[in-house]
Design a protein that fits this description.
The chain is an all-alpha fold. It has 5 helices and no strands. About 60% of the residues lie in helices and about 0% in strands.
């Protein structure tokens, strides 16, 4: 599945983004919303689409107040995935 098709499939998760702007979301926003609101299958597909290096880049850029955008348990899962697979 392409990134574009994946975003289209999950557009209901991006409730506060204008419909015509959803296709332009960054990987940072995509990762945050899939980790917080997506299913386990969505998460696995996201990893397949983006790859571990890009996931690691996103994780390393999450600092300060941005950490608060993640559900704590999902941020912990994100951290564990990066340590195990992307380090």
């Amino acid at each position: 599945m392409t990134r574009e098709k994946f975003i289209e499939k999950n557009k209901h998760l991006f409730w506060y983004i204008k419909p015509d702007k959803i296709k332009d979301i960054s990987n940072d926003v995509l990762v945050e919303f899939i980790f917080n609101y997506g299913t386990w299958d969505d998460l696995k597909m996201l990893i397949k689409i983006l790859g571990y290096p890009e996931l690691k880049r996103v994780f390393e850029n999450v600092t300060g107040r941005q950490i608060g955008n993640y559900i704590p348990e999902m941020y912990d899962l994100f951290h564990r995935i990066i340590i195990k697979h992307a380090s």
